[in-house]
Specification:
heterodimer; A: 448 residues; 23% helix; globular; B: 478 residues; alpha+beta; PmbA/TldD fold; 2 domains; 23 strands
Chain lengths: 448, 478
C-alpha cells in the first residue's frame, strides 16, 4: 500500500511538472487465485499479482487519460508526459475537471471489506473448496452426469487514489466466489445451469455443499424443457434474472445516459416510474457489501442514493462530470473500469426486498412463466424496448408443471416497472447489482 | 513487415537463453508442455461527443503468461513485470500444477521466426503523430451524421486502435512472434422526434492502419448509416410475436452462424461432451445449401491472425459442408486430447488469460439465389438486416440474436420497419430450415467482439442473404 502511495504521489508531481493544471491517478494491485475443477480433477490453476495505473490529466478545460500495467518509473514518467501532450490536442469542455475541492474527505468509515482469514487458506484447501462443490452437485441428482466444472476464485485488491488537490486515499478488500456448472442429461438432451456465491468474508460464503446442491437442482429441473405457444401471461423472475432487469435500470439512471438523452427514464425525476412498493437504492456504504467502497474512483466520498422510492424516481447517479453537466451533485459513482476514462458504475444497486416469500409469489400465479435464465442483448435502454431469450418453468395453478425453453419474453421496461405486482423477500447478492424474486403482471411470450 | 526482430529481443533484452531458463523452471516439477506468451500492447482511443473531443486515452500493457500443461491440467501464472525474477516466480507458480518428478533435459529454443503471412497492414507512422488526423476523421463522421437529418440530436463517434506485439516460445521448440494491428471506428446516433427517441449504430475496421478510413471504409458513410437506422426506427411498428419465415440480409446477420453453430463446435465443449453438437460429426445438421467455414487467413479482417495465440498458423476450417458437420475448432490442448489436427483456433484475450478454442472469421459460403428472388418468395415474414448481438447456451444448443433493423415482408415485398426483436432457435437444427442461400456473401465491416468465459476477442462474421423456413421471433404484437 505504501509503495502504491509513493507511486501515486510521484505521478501527480510529474503531471504538474509536465504542465497539467490538475490530475488524478488511481492505482490498483490485485492478488488473484483461481482454480477450476472438472469431474473431480483440477482443470486449471491460476495465480498472479497484477497492477494497473489509471491516470487523468487536465490542461485547463482539456483532458486526456492513460493506463498501464508497467509501473516502472521510466515508463510512467514518459506516459505522464505523453498524456499531458495528448490533453493539449483535445477540446475544451466546460463541465470537465476534478471534483470540487470541498467534496473530498480524509476520514472514512470502516466498511469491513477485508477478511484476512482468506490468507490462511492454503492452495490445497482452496482447491478442495472447488472439488467439494462439484462433488456435491454430482451426487445431488441422478440426472447430473457431466459437468462444466466448479471454480473457486479469490482476489485481494488494494486501491490507492491521489489527486493534485491533495487528496490521498486507500482501501483494501477481499472477495471470493464459488461457482458450479453441472450438466444434467435425459433422453431428450442436455441442460446446464449454475449457482454461485460471492462474499468478502469467509463465513459469509455459502458452503460448497450448498452451492453444488443448488446448482444441481437448477440444472436437473430444466430437463425435458419444451417450447410453449405464444401467449400473454404473468412472468416471475428469480433473483438472478431479476438482477439482470436491475442492470438495465442502472444503465437508464446513469448520468451519462441522461445527459445524452439516451435513456427511457430521462426527464422523469419526481414522477411515478414503477409500481408502489418498488424501492431501489444505490448504497455504497453497505457493510461488507460486494460493491461497497469508501470513496469512488475520483475520490468522491460514497453515499446511499435513493433511486426509486415507492415507485417515484428520485435521483440519477453521477460522476463529477455528469453532475456538472446536469446541474446536480456527484453521488460517488465515478468508475474507471478499463480504459481510465471516468464513467458511471453501480456500488450496491439493489431493489429492496418485499414481504412475500418466493413460494407465495409462485403460488399466486394461475398460468405463467417462472424465468431462471435470460440470454441475448435485446434490450434498448433508449426506448425501454425489451426482448430476450428465456428459459424457465411453466406455472399452472401456483405449481411448476414443466420446464420451458426456446421462447422469448418481450415488453417495454417502462411498462414492466409499473407492472411489478409482487416483490420477494429474498434479495440475493452475487455482485454489486441485486434483486429479489419479482412478479411482473403481464408480458408477451413468443414461442411456437 | 518493417520490424526485423521481435520488440522483446530488441527493447526488453529478452534472450534465447532466458526463454530456455523460464521454460525449464516451468517444467521443473514435470508436466508435458510449457509455453510463454509475451505481450506488449499499445492502445489509443478517442471519443467525440456533443461535437467536442471528450476523451483521448493511451494504454500500455505489458506482461508475460506462463502455462504448464500436465495431462488435462493447466497451471497458469503471469507477471506484468518482465524482470527475470518475476518471470521465474510466475513459472514456478504455474509449475505447481505438475507433481511428477522433473523430466530433465535441456529445452532448445530456436531463433524466433516472424509469422508474417501478409494478413495485416501495419502502421508505419508513430501513432502519436496521427492524433490530429484521427480527430479530423471523427469530426467528419460527426458532421455527416448531423447533416443526415435534423432529427439527429446526439452523435457519439469513437475510435480505437491497438498494436500488439506477441512472442510465443514453447517447450516443444517453437518460437515465433507477430505484430498485430487492429482499428475500429463506431458511430452511435440518437434521433428524437416529438418526445420519442431512437438510436442507431454502425462501425467498421479491421487489422489495418488508419488508412482504412481514408480508403474503403469512409467514416462519413458509417455515420450516415448509423443516422439512417436511428431515423428509420422512429416509424418502426411493434414486431409480431411467434414462429415465422425469416430472411436474413447479408453480412453482419452472420452472427447467426457464430452463435448457432460456431460456439457449439469449439473443441473444448465437445471434448467434455457438454455441447449440443457433441458426437454429431459426419451427421447432417443443415440443408445441402449450407457450407460454413471459419477462416483466420483472410487479409485485413478483424478475426484474422498470422498465428493463433499459441503460436500455430491459422487455417481455413470447413465446419459444415453441404449440410454435413465436418469438424471442430481446436486449440492445442483439445487437439492433443482428442487426437485431432490443430486448426489454429487457440486464442486468448491477453497475457493474463489461458488460451482456449475460439472462432476467427466465421461465415457461410454463397449460394445461387438472387437476393430479390428470395424476398419475393416470402408471403408473410420478417426481413432482418442489422443485429445488436447474440448469445448461445452451448449445452442445450438454444441461441438468440437480436435484430436492431428489421422489416415485415408482405406478399413478397418489404414493407414496414419493426422494432428490435430477439430471434431464438436451436443450433443443431436451425440450418435444416434454410431453404434459400443468396449469391451475395458479405463479411461484416469489422466490429465483432466475442465473449467466452470472461475473455473477449475480436472476430468477424459473414453471410449471404438466406431464408429460414421458421424461427421464433420475440415481438410484442400477438
Amino acid at each position: 500500500m505504501h509503495e502504491l502511495k509513493q507511486i501515486a504521489e510521484r505521478v501527480i508531481k510529474r503531471a504538474n511538472k509536465s504542465g497539467a493544471s490538475a490530475a488524478d491517478v488511481m492505482l490498483r494491485e490485485d492478488d488473484t487465485f483461481s482454480v477450476n475443477v472438472r469431474m473431480g480433477e483440477i482443470e486449471t490453476l491460476k495465480e498472479a499479482i497484477s497492477r494497473s495505473l489509471l491516470l487523468r490529466v487536465f490542461v485547463g478545460k482539456r483532458t486526456a487519460t492513460s493506463h498501464t500495467s508497467d509501473l516502472s518509473e521510466s515508463l510512467t514518467d514518459k506516459l505522464v508526459d505523453e498524456t499531458v501532450e495528448m490533453a493539449r490536442l483535445t477540446s475544451e469542455d466546460d463541465s470537465g475537471g476534478l471534483p470540487e475541492r470541498s467534496i473530498f474527505q480524509s476520514e472514512f468509515p470502516d466498511l469491513n471489506l477485508l477478511d484476512p482469514a482468506w490468507e490462511n487458506l492454503k492452495p490445497e484447501q482452496r482447491i478442495n473448496l472447488a472439488l467439494r462443490t462439484e462433488a456435491a452437485a454430482l451426487k445431488a441428482d441422478k440426472a447430473i452426469v457431466n459437468s462444466e466444472g466448479a471454480a473457486f476464485e479469490y482476489a485481494r485488491s488494494r486501491v490507492t487514489l491521489a489527486n493534485s488537490l491533495g487528496f490521498l486515499g486507500a482501501y483494501e478488500g477481499t472477495v471470493s466466489t464459488l461457482v458450479c456448472v453441472p450438466v444434467a442429461q435425459c433422453k431428450d438432451g442436455m441442460q446446464r445451469d449454475h449457482w454461485m456465491s460471492a462474499a468478502r468474508h469467509c463465513n459469509h460464503l455459502e458452503s460448497p455443499e450448498e452451492v453444488g446442491k443448488k446448482a444441481a437442482e437448477r440444472a436437473a429441473r430444466r430437463l425435458g424443457a419444451r417450447k410453449i405457444p405464444t401467449c400473454q401471461v404473468p412472468v416471475v423472475f428469480d433473483p438472478l434474472t431479476a438482477r439482470s432487469l436491475l442492470s438495465h435500470i442502472f444503465e437508464a439512471v446513469a448520468g451519462g445516459s441522461i445527459y445524452r438523452r439516451g435513456s427511457f427514464l430521462v426527464d422523469q425525476i419526481g414522477q411515478t416510474v414503477a409500481a408502489p412498493g418498488v424501492t431501489l437504492v444505490d448504497d455504497a456504504r453497505l457493510p461488507a457489501g460486494l460493491g461497497s467502497a469508501p470513496f469512488d474512483d475520483e475520490g468522491v466520498p460514497t453515499q446511499m442514493t435513493p433511486i426509486i422510492e415507492n415507485g417515484v424516481l428520485r435521483n440519477y447517479l453521477h460522476s463529477a462530470y455528469t453532475a456538472r453537466k446536469l446541474g446536480s451533485r456527484p453521488t460517488g459513482n465515478g468508475s474507471r473500469a478499463g480504459s481510465g476514462v471516468v464513467s458511471i458504475g453501480p456500488t450496491n444497486f439493489y431493489l429492496k426486498g418485499g414481504s412475500q416469500t418466493p413460494e407465495e409469489i409462485i403460488a399466486s400465479v394461475k398460468a405463467g412463466l417462472y424465468v431462471v435464465e435470460l440470454i441475448g442483448f435485446g434490450v434498448n435502454t433508449v426506448t425501454g424496448d425489451y426482448s430476450r431469450g428465456a428459459v424457465g418453468l411453466w406455472i399452472e395453478n401456483g405449481k411448476f408443471v414443466h420446464p420451458v425453453q426456446e421462447v422469448t419474453i418481450a415488453g417495454n421496461l417502462r411498462g414492466m416497472l409499473k407492472n411489478i405486482e409482487m416483490i420477494g423477500s429474498d434479495v440475493t447478492f452475487v455482485g454489486s447489482i441485486a434483486a429479489p424474486t419479482l412478479k411482473i403482471g403481464n408480458m408477451v411470450i413468443s414461442g411456437a | 513487415m518493417e520490424v526485423s526482430k521481435s520488440t522483446f529481443f530488441e527493447n526488453y533484452n529478452v534472450t534465447g537463453s532466458d526463454l530456455e531458463a523460464y521454460l525449464g523452471e516451468a517444467l521443473s516439477r514435470g508436466g508435458d508442455y510449457a509455453d510463454l506468451y509475451f505481450e506488449y500492447r499499445i492502445t489509443h482511443s478517442i471519443v467525440l461527443e456533443e461535437q467536442i473531443v471528450k476523451s483521448a486515452t493511451k494504454g500500455v500493457n505489458i506482461g508475460v503468461g506462463v502455462r504448464v500443461v500436465s495431462g488435462e491440467k493447466t497451471g497458469y501464472a503471469y507477471s506484468d513485470d518482465l524482470n527475470r525474477e518475476h518471470i521465474i516466480k510466475a513459472a514456478r507458480t504455474a509449475a505447481f500444477i505438475a507433481s511428477s518428478s522433473a523430466q530433465g533435459g535441456r529445452i532448445g529454443i530456436p531463433n524466433p521466426i516472424a509469422q508474417d503471412r501478409g494478413l495485416y497492414s501495419v502502421p508505419v507512422v508513430p501513432a502519436n503523430l496521427e492524433i490530429a488526423q484521427k480527430i479530423r476523421l471523427l469530426e467528419e463522421a460527426d458532421q455527416a451524421a448531423r447533416g443526415y437529418d435534423p432529427r439527429i440530436k446526439q452523435v457519439q463517434v469513437s475510435y480505437i486502435d491497438e498494436t500488439k506485439h506477441v512472442l510465443i516460445a514453447t517447450s516443444d521448440g517453437r518460437c515465433s512472434w507477430d505484430l498485430q494491428p487492429l482499428v475500429r471506428l463506431n458511430v452511435m446516433c440518437i434521433a428524437e422526434e416529438s418526445g420519442q427517441r431512437q438510436s442507431g449504430y454502425q462501425g467498421g475496421g479491421g487489422r489495418r492502419a488508419l488508412d482504412v478510413f481514408t480508403g474503403e471504409l469512409d467514416p462519413k458513410e458509417l455515420a450516415c448509416e448509423s443516422a439512417r437506422q436511428a431515423i428509420l426506427q422512429l416509424r418502426a411498428i411493434d414486431t409480431p410475436a411467434g414462429s415465422m419465415e425469416v430472411v436474413l440480409g447479408p453480412g453482419w446477420p452472420g452472427i447467426l452462424l457464430h452463435e448457432a453453430i460456431g460456439h457449439g463446435l469449439e473443441a473444448d465443449f465437445n471434448r467434455k461432451k457438454t455441447s449440443a453438437f457433441s458426437g454429431l460429426i459426419g451427421q447432417k445438421v443443415g440443408s445441402e445449401l449450407c457450407t460454413v467455414v471459419d477462416d483466420g487467413t483472410i487479409p485485413f479482417r478483424r478475426g484474422s491472425l498470422n498465428m493463433d495465440d499459441e503460436g500455430n498458423p491459422t487455417h481455413k476450417t470447413v465446419l459444415i459442408e453441404k449440410g454435413v458437420l465436418q469438424g471442430y475448432l481446436q486449440d492445442r490442448l483439445s487437439s492433443k486430447l482428442m487426437n485431432s489436427p490443430l486448426t489454429g483456433n487457440g486464442r486468448r484475450q491477453s497475457y493474463d488469460h489461458i488460451p482456449m478454442p475460439r472462432m476467427t472469421n466465421t461465415f457461410m459460403m454463397a449460394g445461387e439465389s438472387a437476393p430479390e428472388d428470395i424476398i419475393k418468395s416470402v408471403k408473410k415474414g420478417l426481413y432482418a438486416v442489422h443485429f445488436g448481438g447474440g448469445q448461445v447456451d452451448i449445452t442445450s444448443g438454444k441461441f438468440v440474436f437480436s435484430a436492431s433493423e428489421a422489416y415485415l415482408i408482405e406478399g413478397g415485398r418489404i414493407t414496414a420497419p419493426v422494432k428490435g426483436a430477439t430471434l431464438i432457435g436451436d443450433g443443431p437444427t436451425v440450418l435444416r430450415q434454410v431453404t434459400a442461400v443468396g449469391n451475395d456473401l458479405k463479411l461484416d465491416h469489422g466490429v465483432g467482439i466475442c465473449g467466452k468465459d470472461g475473455q473477449t476477442i475480436p472476430v468477424s462474421v459473414g453471410l449471404p442473404t438466406i431464408k429460414i423456413r421458421e424461427i421464433t421471433v420475440g415481438g410484442t404484437e400477438k
